[in-house]
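Reviewer 2 asked us to include a model.

Predict the structure of this chain.
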Amino acid sequence: MALPTDTDSSWLSRTGTPSRLFGAGSDDYELFEEDGEFVLSVEMPGFDSDEIEVGWHEGRLTIAAEQHDERRDQSRTYRRSFRMPKEIDDENIRARYQNGMLDVHLPSVEEGTVKGKTIPIEG
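Predicted model (structure tokens):
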């Protein structure tokens, strides 16, 4: 009998493993909340840190990278945008790129929630 391996399993949630909020269709990133901050881990192998740009504007995190190979006359680009489910302390966002993995730490504001409204459903 195989044990469940997804992070939503009840047996795994009791081990202290961070809960996964959502992932990309191509599974190149993971976002989870841990110790009062969101941690976004993005697989970006082959890029140098100076080719990657991480930006924060009006509640949206943007990650962009561009690389051009002169020998092969080829370009490679990466672009993703994320909106966090809670208000973020944007003065303390930090990012680190190591071994092809970009980790962005986004501390959430205590008791802060993203502003929005409930949309009524017709029918």
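The radius of gyration is 18 Å. Residues 25-107 form a domain with the Immunoglobulin-like fold (CATH 2.60.40.790). We have added this to the supplementary material.
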